Amino acid sequence: MTRAVCPGSFDPVTNGHLDIIRRAAAIFDELVVATGTNPSKSRLFDPDERLEMLREVCADLPNVTVSGFTGLIVDFCREIGAQAIVKGLRGGNDYEYELPMAQMNSHLTGVETVFLTTHASWGYVSSSLVKEVASLGGDVSALVPDTVHGRLVERVAGRR
Ligand code: PNS
């Protein structure tokens, strides 16, 4: 049985994330989508809201579960018996950012990181850009799942 973790901030989950989740779920027997904390980023949605959105959009994927984690991702992987971490790569910047983390995680426990290349349709999509555009009144409805779009519009309107 192969079990992998797809970690991220998912603030909020985008169609790009969902594409990676779906494709990883087709490769591994079990996929755990895990929301962690990246202290270098500011948050729009609290951890429970991010988990709820992930559960909604992964509901049709029978081998996918959603979980939060605190502390090191490698400790979470060990706790749940996951052999691999899955990440999406949109381009060179992502690679530069992800490579040392993959190497550090390998150094710490030997866990493997598997990179999936983002589908070209989602190459420019990030949670940060989606939040920025939505907060300035732009239309991001094609870039996030419908349920996420509703919450996003409501949240940014409340902050104007
Ligand atoms: O979506 P993001 O912001 O790129 O997600 C980053 C995240 C949360 C996956 C990453 O920061 C992480 O793994 N944090 C857990 C703490 C940890 O293990 N840090 C050392 C990484 S080598």
From TrEMBL:
GO MF assignments: ATP binding; pantetheine-phosphate adenylyltransferase activity
Binding residues annotated for substrate, in chain numbering: 9, 41, 73, 87
Key word Flavoprotein present: no
Pathway membership, UniProt: Cofactor biosynthesis; coenzyme A biosynthesis; CoA from (R)-pantothenate: step 4/5
GO terms for cellular component: cytoplasm
Organism: Nocardioides agri
Family that this chain belongs to: Belongs to the bacterial CoaD family.
Localization per record: Cytoplasm
Coiled-coil regions listed: none
InterPro entries, alphabetized: Cyt_trans-like (IPR004821), PPAT (IPR001980), Rossmann-like_a/b/a_fold (IPR014729)
Reactions this protein catalyses: (R)-4'-phosphopantetheine + ATP + H(+) = 3'-dephospho-CoA + diphosphate
Protein name in the entry: Phosphopantetheine adenylyltransferase
SUPFAM superfamilies found in the cross-reference section: Nucleotidylyl transferase
Record keywords: ATP-binding, Coenzyme A biosynthesis, Cytoplasm, Magnesium, Nucleotide-binding, Nucleotidyltransferase, Transferase
Keyword Magnesium carried by entry: yes
Residues binding ATP, per UniProt: 9-10, 17, 88-90, 98, 122-128
Site positions per UniProt: Transition state stabilizer: 17
CDD domains assigned: PPAT (cd02163)
Principal cellular location given in the protein's record: cytoplasm
BP-aspect Gene Ontology terms: coenzyme A biosynthetic process
Essential cofactor(s): Mg(2+)
EC number: 2.7.7.3
UniProt function note: Reversibly transfers an adenylyl group from ATP to 4'-phosphopantetheine, yielding dephospho-CoA (dPCoA) and pyrophosphate.
Subunit and partners: Homohexamer.
Residues annotated as domain Cytidyltransferase-like: 5-132
